[in-house]
Structures
1.
Amino acid sequence: MEFLSSIRNLPNHCKSALQNIWRNGVMSISSIFAVTITLLLIAILGIIAINVNKITLSIENSLTIYVKVDREATNKQAKKIGEELNMIEGVKKVTYSSKEQELNKLINSQSSENKKLFATYKKDNPLGDAYQVEVKNAKNIATIAKQIEDIPNVNEVTYGGSSTSDMVNLLEHIRNGGAIFAFALTVVVLFMIANTIKMAITSRSTEIAIMRMVGASNWYIRLPFMLEGVFIGLFGSIIPIIVLYYGYSFAYDQFTKVLSSSVMVLEAPFPFIWHMSGVLVLLGCGVGLIGSFFSVRKFLEF
């Protein structure tokens, strides 16, 4: 009943919370500043972690196995190889390329002078058919390549060898290590926000005691402080969102200019910025709400 009564007076409690923030100016500003700094750290770490994860996944997905078919293999034998490739566990996609397409790729990759020279090979194409194999998990690329080598009429299998496997393991360690580090640091900074709000409320223990002496209910006392924590979290998220909006858009433009690649691609600014902004607001308000709730609670216990 106390809670429902307090909810009915929510507009008055909101007004009281805003007045308390204004009245306790220095302490409120220090709390908002602490929230701003910590949310800024979370935003930077979140952006780095998300984009590192995206880039590493993109690199892993770009790893393919190139399979050359014997030149003397018949069309039936080449087709049989494709069927066996699709049957290998862990293969995501198999793309066929005829010997004519392979020669055209080779010609197009040459300079204008050499193109004429390589074009003469069209009369007697020295190349064979080929397959490009994409795998579901880059960690299994060496194992799958080994299986492909055992298929009859396969002339050569190329995937980068042990260096590719080492790179896959390195990318996985980077991704997992980054995620753990970002999570641990997020917990630490959220604890800092809650502790800052707790200190601000502790300094007003006398105010809470007086309210109790005049007969105010627990929820009547608690709710304005909780709303105050929410507003502090909300105000503290404004600057990080502004920095995120302009900073990430600028960083994205500069990165794409310097490293224009189909693999090294960052998250597009929108709607990524809106999603990150929503997370920052929820974190700030949520931690402010929960931190205030537990900080006030100890002053309401006899």
2.
Amino acid sequence: MAFRPSLRSIWTLIAMAVVCYGLYLWAEFNIVEVKQPHYDQKLAAAQLMNESMNALAASPARNFEAIESYGDPRLDALVGQQFSTITTDIGSFEAKLNGLNPNFAAAAVQILLEAGLKSGDEVAVAMTGSNPGANLAVLCACEVLGVKANTITSIGSTWWGANDPLFTWVDMQRLLIDKKTLSAKAVAASRGGLDDAATGLSSAGRAELEAAAHRAGLPLLTAESADQAAKVWWESFKGAIKGPKYAAYINIGEGVASTGHSENGRLLSDGVHRRLPARNWPARGAMHLAADEGVQVIHLYDMTRVARNYGLGAPRIPLAEPGFGDVFTTERYDVRVAAAALLLALAALFTLIRIDAKYFRLADAGVDPESLL
């Protein structure tokens, strides 16, 4: 008896299983790379950050005798020493590397867009010398999006930050503004460290912080306590705004004048906060004062977590080139292939059903279908 395909045939079912599994494999392994929303702006920000880092690496202001070489001039320019006369506290080398990834600027673009920021908005950016990479990433994101950034920096730095006394973060920002790479407005600076007054640093270190502010042409904010420093910072920010209200207050790191207390950085998750959650805050900083006036807060505290959340991958030496990471592209199944595979499987099944239906109609009519083969 000749073979006739039928859903009642075990060999037909085995053949169908093989065909369907082949179609599944076809769809499974046809993956396409898809650009994430705002790809062009993210890439522009990453490229601007990379360009800025190269400009800093070429600066003659760097203290070449004091730096350690990591084999990447961009890292050599922005990663400081573990200890210096203006080092204020311990810090994580991994977090510094994550912030220095040029693609961190793309993540910053994504965060600013999540906050609803648009061209022409003004933002207050509170920075420290501890995270030069994250500082630069945010300013590059603002530049690309047309957001106007007013900055205040606590100059002191934790381990491996911008702690070269002759090339602090305010020196770097001044250099990039002078080269017209960035258009952010530096409003003022403070010493940073404990109570935002560099308490515990040597007199030489404190003098170097004051000299850095003087070189950058910035007024040095002083206060007798962290609470007072927070008020001074917020009033300075408000004195610099041109519009009626800031669209966001961006805190980078754990500067005590901005956060109010070092523990507050950990009490607030990274990202956008339309309102600050109710917490038993140990103290209140400038970001709390901003939130009290209805200004949303963007908090960037743990650079390692931010990098992980936006798919930037693990930190590496040398640094990644612009355009690398899930923040730019994602992999998805090829919908055209998946649809074609589904249609072919349904067509095969429908054909077998029609053959079986025809067989049953002949049998009902008293015709032996086998006699027609």
3.
Amino acid sequence: MLKSLLKPVLFISAATALTAPAVLSANDLIKSGETVAVAKSTLSITPPRDWNKLSARPGKKAETWTLDGERLNDISFYSDIAPGEPLLRERSKKHDPLPKLRSNSLLTDVPELLEGTYRAYFGIAVFSVGTSKPTKFLNEPAIQFTYEYVTPDELTRRGEAIAALRNGKLFMMTFDAPKLHFFDRNIEDYRALVATAKIS
């Protein structure tokens, strides 16, 4: 969903999305069973089903995949985010800075980092973090958490994320989808991808 919030003209409302064919941005097909490196990093994924990789990358160390179209069911990968770096590409470091990973950031700080990024980058006024719990990701201690937010065009979206800190760098996968229909329909597709994540 990342890039598209900046393009309201391309917005697909939840109601429309349920009745009209999805519109895909330019993308590459990621075939099932094919192991691919994501976000030009050492993080690799072997998808159990076909996905579409959006050509527009939201950040230097980020990448977004979707099944049916941008903003309908988006998985974003953030890989090798070092202290001092934001999750997304800053439009203006001076006038529109984004939250950065800190050298002393803990896993419990990651939901706040994502929330701050969404609020600053997408103009999200209503954002709430839901449940969180410790887990494993990339063979590292990790945090899994849920969140919900309302876009400027008043669409309620739900999300789930998993994140780990590896040698001080952040690796995270997020799933964002409209609360109506798409989140419940594809959350297990996201979790299936998470299960294949590896560092090569």
4.
Amino acid sequence: MNKHFVGDTAVLLGRSLRHIARSPDTIITTAIMPIAFMLLFVYVFGGAIETGTDSYVNYLLPGILIITIASGISYTAFRLFLDMKGGIFERFQSMPIARSSVLWAHVLTSLVANLISLVVVIGVALIMGFRTGVGVPGWLAVAGILVLFTLALTWIAVIPGLTAKTLDGASAFSYPLIFLPFVSSAFVPTDSMPGPVRAFAEHQPVTSIVNAIRDLFTQQPVGTDIWIALAWCAGILVLAYLFANLTYRRKIS
């Protein structure tokens, strides 16, 4: 990473952030669905769900934060697809800028937009009664997990953004990611699930990430969940980064 790359990425990041500032509906739309899920599950289904905790919103929030990120990264694929089809990438290639800075600008824009959406969702959760006694170190640990998870999913989103044939195809890839938390410990304890579903739920990445964040919020010992969560996030991030950059090089070569 050199000064040329950092400067180019900063300029392109500013361009992407200005696009979001002109259309804040992107962030609002991203936050609406997880907030709707939170309202539905807390006020409609929450009374019938036994989680062993006094407050269902406290139990639910970590899963809702994961859904917020999965929903938000679809806009990265959407914006990349528009840049590809609009000839922006060809225009950038004719300029003396670091080529990888184009992708990094989109990734960092996704990170900023998702962090804003997460703050909005946590604000609504606080209004609904979410409470935690976690201190600054705990909040920083939660933020670190969410940032790592956002980067991992965003690099996945780069791949369909570069390769999709249609706008719908670029955005639709995120649907399985959005519904993955429903087959995890995000909404109900995995103990209540039938055998095969429980086995899948307990060994997929969302469950360890949700459990680690929930334990941090409730100030419980995190055990091995946080290390499993970090391993999942780091593994997905490395693989997605490598495949996304390989795809990008093939596209611009």
